[in-house]
Amino acid sequence: MYVSTQGRRMLRAAAILSIAAVTPLTGVGVAAATPAAARATASPAAPAGQQAVVFQGYRTTVPAGWPVIDLTRQPTACVRYDRPAVYLGHPGVGQRCPAHLVGRTDALLIEPLDQTAAVRIDSATATAAAGQATPAHTPTSRDGQITVAVPDAGVLVTATHGQSQTTARSILGRAVLAAGGRPATVPRPQPSPSTLSVTIQPGSYQGGGFDACTAPSSDRMQAWLSSPYRAIGVYIGGVSRACSQPNLTADWVSTQVSAGWHLIPIHVGLQAPCTGFSNRMSKNPATAASQGRSAATDAVISAQALGIPPDSVLYNDMEGYDNTKTTCRTAVLSFLSGWTQRLHEQSYMSGVYSSVSSGIRDLGSVYNSTTRARPDHIWFAWWNGLADTSTGSYVPSQYWVNHERLHQYRGGHNETWGGVTINIDSDYLDVAPPVNRDFSAYPTVQSGSVGDGVTAAQFLLNAEGYGPIAVDGNFGSQTQDAVIAFQTAKVLAADGIVGAHTWTALLSAGYRPVLQLGSTGLDVRRLQRALTAALGRAVVIDGSFGSPTDEAVREYQSTRGLTVDGVVGNATWSALKSGR
To answer: b/e string for 332-348 if b means 16 or more Cβ within 10 A?
Structure first.
């Protein structure tokens, strides 16, 4: 996923040539196709500079320079949306895709409307009217693509696009019915599966992993159980997702998790405004933050459709950018803060993938910000060939130390395991879910103490950059030193004892979102923990800001001389963070 701009262009050019090399082209960039089912021709009826494409009773025109690839004859061809092309037929389950592809532009996929295509039908899919090849109403774009089912032809059409939707909508709008249609009923959108059968992802894992542009079939994943890898990065959505995902379904997710694979769910959306990608975020920080929130909402929808449960980590792919440009850097940080805030509201954890020298270094520079939400995991691209989680001088070693790091240490290359070759990026993971921090009462812990309370305190000290210390439940000298350092920084009695005041400050640490009646998510849980410690009584810790939490907030505000309004804003957070 990470490569220099010049290197990326060279790799993409090579990848395009490799696909062209295996695709028999005739005429003006047109793949040979079975006459009965599909054909592309520079028909006299096509406007100048256009070529007609006909597949199973569906006809439209596309720019004459677009290659037309028959997937029946080329089942391993990579259906990639980062270059203009037309694909006819179902994407193959054994596509040969370069691992590094990112970005979307205008492209077209036309496939039979059957159960194989059903997994690509969702609530955004439009349906053409009877006797028509176009829908009666303007179809919706989601994740950089517009999908139209045409029952009279028996096809499902997916048109992808970059920042502008003009070409994609024009191609769809010119469509007409032709001879050779195979009428079919539109399958119903697949219901969201239960997330109870899949564990939190990526879960607890330390070891090798890989990411690939398209999710390998279950058979290929089974063959790769002979590899040293047990984690796989999969692109679950985003407007810059370059490859089709014919294998990525809820059943696939459940099968792989049951087989022992750990999943790294990746959302690849808007990129930095100073890059050359077609889909870029706004330079305006407020707009970029809102776009980050929207991306997180889309990622959660995609995760839930695949059965990936709450408390899992969803990773935003932010490709490398020039962080010497202040406007660009600020926009990216605003976007990623919005991404994290929204994921936390929906009870998912936040991860960010980026170059170690741009996105990850910038996140490290604002680690202790109280105005930007901090991602829970960092996944850094640094192709140094070292399977470890060291960020060198780019990020301080005391940040993200609670099993919260992933390292992509090698870029796209072929590996063969169990007789199956896949082009992959290589990763090393050291990840685990957070330790339990939910208690009905927070015990006083000090030198010599042991147990879950000590474990929670150690985890929190690490999270705030006062480590790395062992999270082992034993309160030794290392833990005591970290406690004293934290207490000193917060102007608390530096006695090395974690009592009510220190607990309150530790549990409330982080950025300061405005919370009130109706708020939900991980930051509400953080508030509820802090209130439990501060008030010395149990506050229900469930991530839902209901009446019990409202009463606790008002009680806290009243006893601390704050405005009693039930709204947790800057003043209430400040009091909690000071250990009051």
So the answer is: bbbbbbbbbbbbbbbbb
